[in-house]
Amino acid sequence: MSYPFQIASFDEYEKAYKASIEQPEKFWADVADTFSWRKRWDEVLEWNFREPKVEWFKGGKLNITENCLDRHLESSADTPAIIWEPNDPTQKSRTLTYRELHFKVVQFANVLRNNGISKGDRVCIYMGMVPELAIAVLACARIGAIHSVVFGGFSAQSIADRLQDASANYIITCDGAYRGNKEIPLKSVIDDALVQCEFVEKVIVLNRTRTPVSMIRGRDVWWDEEVQKVDSTGNPDLPAVEMDAEDPLFILYTSGSTGKPKGVVHTVAGYMVWTTYTFVNVFQYKRGEIHFCTADIGWITGHSYIIYGPLCAGATSLMFEGIPTWPDAGRFWDIIDKHTVNILYTAPTAIRSLMGFGLDPLKGKKLDSLRVLGTVGEPINEEAWHWYNENIGKSRCPIVDTWWQTETAGCLISNLAGITPSKPGWATLPLPGVIPKIVDEKGDEVVVAEDGFIKGNLCLTAPWPGILRTTYGDHERCRTNYFAAYPNLYFTGDGCLKDSNGFYRITGRVDDVLNVSGHRIGTAEVENAINMHTGVVESAVVGYPHDIKGQGIYGFVIYNGLEKDMELIRKDITLTVTRIIGPIAKPDKIQFVSGLPKTRSGKIMRRILRKIAEGETKNLGDTSTLLDPGIVEEIKNGRV
Ligand code: PRX
Question: How far is the CA of 405 from the centre of ligand 1 (A)?
């Protein structure tokens, strides 16, 4: 049985798109009617981008976990909901059917309640990729607690910042996590973070690696022991808490152009409708298929396309604990054959890294279960697209290039697998409900093509159900970040091209945000971390093209400390960034300079630094407004 809102042909796509623009309220009401509500909404949509205010399905009452779990119990209780593949391939994988997942979520929701957590409380989840992470997320949603998942690679300082920003009093973590041949001591990182966060009341710790951990009496409790307490009461039932359509579901922190990550807030109903609608349509999911999204649940892709979208659709979602290159670079392909994966959704950086191992790791791998391939997170270069198409998809699987953001909840511009055309490197067409507008610096719509393309900054003119509602604790920040650059438009921060077919190609960020291995990192965040190092006077960070990561991090640093061994300082600075943010923000290159190119008003001309980092030494553009044009020469000559 297909889904009532599944688009089955190009003609249907065109019709759906038109209907979604002409009568958005009717269009989305029809989609939302296919979900399970305790009470239907009073009003489909109310919005303005001035404040901004966006409310979908207002007055509706529901619980997203009843849509992810309960409503599948009648017809598909024995369908696998989650297949979990452990880090170590010699260990057993685990399957949780919808019945089992429902049981475990309800059970853990009881644990949360017994530990004093209730609707509206913020719960930070800092775990490895184990099924209990999905269970923790869903159990929060079940009782209406707002989850804030923090990627397991972030440092104690980053966790402390996030705990403070969200006033999160509760934490769910693991003793440790496995990633390839590494063991990451998560609980000990949490302990370090909590030195600054005495307001945290409870830490629930799952035993995964048996790493010795210190447990603080009264604050820290073991997951298993708490579960046993629930079981011993003999009645682990817990009705899902009724939520308003616009109640917050979760906070997810993401980087912007300022130094401090923002807590993007998504609400229950709109997020549910958008992730499910896009999952079913973009991947053209067919019931019974196995969907493998390789992202970590610490990022939005994992939230939307490992947990909520697939589970709301009653799909089988494969969750992988490890990394693509361990024990060898054939791991993804082994997983695909072992579990007969039908849909593979990964990032261009992973494809490029695997390409680097040549075709040997593919020997003996069948990959014949694959039907659809997907990419997300950054622009995909044509070479990687063709490699993916030929060697993984055997030229028979459509590739969906899905463009979206943490703030958008799910895909906005993407081809629909096998239904709408693909074009290597192009995200192609907007989904129903998505109205892009390309503007120039001044905010005027660009209508004239240059070299065959319309070029400019990508904005969206109207809300789709999954648009962010606010940034946690600071609505003004949401307005200035996304809705102030251009009046009445949501500004994505991305530059783009549009061709004569109306296809879009996202060319990358136009703000001070880097995209390193598909992860968003603000240059200001990295600079702040570098500046924490004693002896560093000032720094400026820019991105440069990197063969595997897409973008690498290049730091220009003014140092006048006492230590003179520059190699040692370089290592120390790198360590400082790792400690302050996490290993994902480590600079790839550090160049020591005696000054930075600044205008007379003191603004760093990043454009010049970007060109130097890219290896461009001739056409640096106009440098006449610089306070000290001579510094450019020095920086050029000292390039690393
Ligand atoms: O620059 C775009 C890039 O990733 C940014 C969003 O990052 P994040 O919020 O971390 O979410 C990543 C997963 C959705 C965007 O502003 N980006 C994402 N997908 C694509 C992309 N750039 C080009 N093509 C894509 N398919």
Answer: 5
Among 474, 507, 540, identify where a domain stops: 507
Q: Please identify, by atom number, the ligand 1 atom nearest to the C-alpha of residue 492.
A: 16
Which ligand 1 atom is at minimum distance from the Cα of 519?
Answer: 10
Task: Identify whether residues 305 and 359 lie together within a single domain.
Answer: yes
My answer on whether 209 and 166 are in the same domain is yes
- DSSP state letter for 480: I
Instruction: Please compute, for residue 581, the number of CA atoms within 13 A of its CA located in the half-sphere on the CB side.
Output: 28
Tell me the CA–centroid distance for residue 379 and ligand 1, in Å. 8
User: At residue 571, does pLDDT exceed 90?
Assistant: yes
* Total domains in the fold of the chain: 2
* Distance (Å, whole) CA 492 – CA 408: 9
Q: From the CB of 494, is ligand 1 less than 6 Å away?
A: yes
Task: Check residue 257 and give its pLDDT.
Answer: 80
Distance (Å) from CA 450 to ligand 1 centroid: 25
Q: How far is 303 from 406, CA to CA, in rounded Å?
A: 10
CA of 557 to the centre of ligand 1 (A): 28
Q: Is the distance from the beta carbon of residue 493 to the nearest atom of ligand 1 less than 6 Å?
A: yes
* pLDDT the model gives residue 593: 96
Residues 350 and 491 in one domain: yes
Who contacts 519 (Cβ-Cβ below 8 Å, separation ≥6)?
Answer: 299, 377, 584
- Which residue, by CA, sits nearest to atom 6 of ligand 1? 405
Contact 509 CB / ligand 1 (< 6 Å): yes
With a 6 Å cutoff on the Cβ, whether 301 touches ligand 1 is yes
Measure Cα distances from 200 to 12, 20, 50, 109, 123 in Å.
Answer: 51, 45, 36, 19, 10
- Residue ID of nearest Cα to ligand 1 atom 11: 405
* Same domain membership, residue 239 and residue 305: yes
Asked whether 339 and 83 are in contact (CB, 8 A), the reply is yes
Nearest CA owner, ligand 1 atom 15: 405
Share of the chain above pLDDT 70, in %: 99
Decide: 427 in ligand 1 pocket, CB within 6 A.
yes
Which of 481, 507, 533 terminates a domain? The answer is 507
Question: What is the mean predicted confidence (pLDDT) over 213-228?
Answer: 97
Do 540 and 498 belong together in one domain? no
Q: Do residues 394 and 362 make contact, with C-beta atoms less than 8 angstroms apart?
A: no
Q: Residue 235's pLDDT band (boundaries 50, 70, 90)?
A: low
**What are the pLDDT digits (tens) for 249-294?**
999 999 988 878 999 999 999 999 999 999 999 999 999 999 999 9
- Whether residues 106 and 170 fall in one domain: yes
Q: The domain spanning residue 603 has which CATH number?
A: 3.30.300.30
Same domain? For 233 and 137 the reply is: yes
Domain ranges, residue 560: 513-637
pLDDT at 237: 76
pLDDT mean over 410-429:
98
